Amino acid sequence: MKLWAIGKVNKSNPHIQWEFQGIFDNEQVAAALCVDETWFVGPVTLNELTPLETIAWSGAYYPHAKNIDK
Question: Quick one: pLDDT at residue 70?
Fold first, then answer.
C-alpha cells in the first residue's frame, strides 16, 4: 500500500532538520495540506524497509517550490 508522508524543513537550528507532519493515503490531499515552499511530500510503502544508506527519496517533491517539476 502506497502512502504519502508530508513534512517541513526546519532551518532555524544550526543543522537543517525536517519535521514529520503527517501521513495520508492520497497524494493530492497530502500536497494540498502543504503550507509553503518548505513543506514536502514523499511516497512511502507500508511494511517496506528503506535502504540503510542515505539515498535520494524517489518521488519526493515540494508542492510549492517555484520552477521545479514534480
Answer: 43
